[in-house]
Amino acid sequence: MDQVSRRRFLKISAGVIAAAGAAGAAADRVLAGARSAAQSGLKRIPTFCNVCFWQCGAIASVRDGKLWKIEGHPLDPLSHGRLCPRGTGGIGAHSDPDRLRSPLIRVSERGEERWKAVTWDEALTFIAERMQKIKADYGPESFAAFIHGLGGTFFKHTLRAYGTNNIAAPSFAQCRGPRDVGFTLTFGDDAGALERTDIENAQCLVLIGSHLGENMHNTQVQEFATAVGKGASIIVVDPRFSVAASKAKFYLPIKAGTDIALLLAWMNVIVGEKLYDKEYVDKYGFGFEQFAAEIQPYTPEWAYPETGIDPETIRATAREMARYRPATLIHPGRHSSWYGDDAQRGRAIALLNALMGSWGRKGGLYAPSAVAVPAYPHPAYPKPAKPEVDNPNNKYPFANENISTGIREATMTGKPYPVKGWLVYATNLMYSLPNQAETIRAIQQLDLLVVVDVIPSEIAGYADVVLPEANYLERYDDLHAEPFKVPFIALRQPVVEAPDDQKPNWWIAKKLAEKLGLGVYYPWNDIEEYLAARLKAGGYSYEDLKRDGIILGKQPPIYFEDGAPAMFDTPSKKIEFFSTQLQKAGFDPVPKYTQPEVGAAGSYRLLFGRAPVHSFSRTQTNHLLMDLLSENAVWINATEAARLGLKSGDHVRLRNQDGAVSNRILVKATERIRPECVYMVHGFGHTAKGLRFAFGKGASDSELITRYKTDPLMGGTGMNVNFVTIETEA
User: Facing residues of 494 across strands?
Assistant: First the structure.
């Protein structure tokens, strides 16, 4: 279940792992402290975090059977012994009073949130009977899933054994997918789940809509601090003066939606002034002359009225990047579904990195590696009789994962065939998908909706069955071995017991498979047997991993200059400045700029983002984190606020172009945002009745995102295309 492609990542053998003696010695020192603590009645248990997808290594301290604190694991290459505020506040997830406590079956209309508590056997029997009926009436492909994160591994396994291939992660179409497709079209590989950014060694770092310090990816934030401390030149492009912008040498307050114009103008200067890495481009590039001809019209003077950035600033920042190449890193970003042309925006960022010669270079984007742990053997999955439902006729030809909104569309329309069942794991679709009305319309077509969650989220309110999951501090998960700068295997293991009748995901998925007559796909008795067998097959010790929490591999070369292989899985086997595959599919082979749509007079473009103390909409019931930020505020340019008679601390409501109205939200009047935009942190304004502590606090941007623009290359949903007016209390 957890294999790493030979084509894309170096495999690290057991012999190499065993050779990493220094790491073992360091582990002995760390765990000596743990043994000493145990003697005094304090247990220190290694695990890894799950408050966000970065999944940093951690050590939990348990005193007298109660969770006391969580710290970073000093041997973990992701945390380096330090956790972010969300990670240290994870204790609050265990003690959350609003947690789901037992399985629930709906007893009223969907959305009314009325339930009866049942046993696990009753709940799983109910689900299995409905799934078998869907399979008999429509085929197994008519059951789909939306799954987020490592915890969904075993649900995917059960559903593939059942016979469906309609399994989507909303993180593809609603977050990282456009970026990954843009990079893959250029380099033949994407930016990585744990982005391959060598920030600590970058001498020039360009953040174009990337909010390091607010979007709290632990390793990157630590490396950002290192880069700033070393005197790296920071260039930040953003309509909003972010935390990262406060560290910048150059801050460019760009008009929202015009990033491609700026990127083209930068490339025009770098190519026109011959500032690019010619040796690198000549050696690794394909179609450079055609690319150079395509970008020739996009001068800084052309870009000025589009972006609001004056030509001399564009030239100065382009020259600044070139001065430090190849240790110049244009950050790929993470959330990249903004305006509907986002795969081309991701490609433009990739091309700028290529001009700098930074792909595969120190201070740029390194070559990651991973430990390949053999999968646990199981029978072959049945071959689905129908194609995947999300992308009929290959409408989005460069989508390399299932499209969540494509599954939703098929569920609403019944085309290309009916979808009658959903399983939703660890994602609140009311907040992660645009246009809540379409999500509700799709749900009404279902014969079965199963939600597996820790809290009674908004999507759970529409479920037929809600299954309470043990949270990450109370369970085992599959092995964590993502490609990274240092190859590793990490173990999540229980630190404390679940407080009520919550169960781990592996147990739920296994028991459901058995109810479906698919027990042969789970030939192991429990998760520890499964984990030990996988590790043994790879030559590793489960006992060592359980004790230490992590196994470190020896780092292979990560830069081309040190021997990392320069491999590009593109049609030309080179970096594609001019993309013939885009051209053949009828798309622009070099990115072109399209002016973003504008709102009606008196309206403001709605922008949204993250806070360093919350993860999406998942943590607002965690009392420790809510004490740090209990509600969001809307950023309004100070001049605009004064014109409207508003000041910081006032309350307003936001009304979007389609008439959707937000809950009351605090005003933050500030010079730190352009006058034609407003901004709010995502994830607040909960409406689920079971979220007693978070209910109604702040406003939900998701309720205001009624429109989206679909990326024609890969199906991503651009959501920064909504506009709001501001309504005062009076």
Answer: none
Q: Which of 53, 256, 264, 79 is nearest to 170 (CA)?
A: 53
169 plus 152 within the same structural domain: yes
Radius of gyration in angstroms for the set of CA atoms belonging to the chain, rounded to a whole number: 25
* Number of Cβ within a 10 Å radius of residue 301: 11
Residues 483, 468 contacting (CB under 8 angstroms): no
Is residue 704 a contact partner of residue 722, using CB atoms and an 8 Å limit?
yes
Q: Tell whether 168 and 184 lie within a shared domain.
A: no
E strand intervals along 549-595: 550-552, 575-576
pTM given for the model: 0.94
Question: What's the CA dihedral at 58, 62, 68, 71 to 10 degrees?
Answer: -20
**What would the pLDDT profile of 428-471 be if each residue is shown by its tens digit?**
999 999 999 999 999 999 999 999 999 999 999 999 999 999 99
| Residue 155 identity (one-letter amino acid) | F
Structure token digits, residue 695 = 């209910």
Segments forming the whole domain that contains residue 520: 104-173+389-473+496-527
Domain match, 394 and 460 both: yes
Q: Are 128 and 515 in contact (CB under 8 A)?
A: yes
Q: What mean pLDDT is reported for the chain?
A: 94
In degrees, to the nearest 5, what angle opens at C-alpha 563 toward C-alphas 557 and 567?
95
For residue 282, give the CATH number of its domain.
Answer: 3.40.228.10
Helices 311-324 and 259-272, axial angle in degrees (round to 10): 60
Q: Is residue 380 part of a domain?
A: no
How far apart (Å, rounded) are the C-alpha atoms in residues 611 and 608? 10
Q: Cβ distance 250 to 309 under 8 Å?
A: no
- Does 191 reside within a domain? yes
Number of domains in the chain: 3
* Same domain for 274 and 162: no
Q: Which two tokens stand for residue 413?
A: 């329309």
Are 721 and 704 in contact by the 8 Å Cβ rule? The answer is no
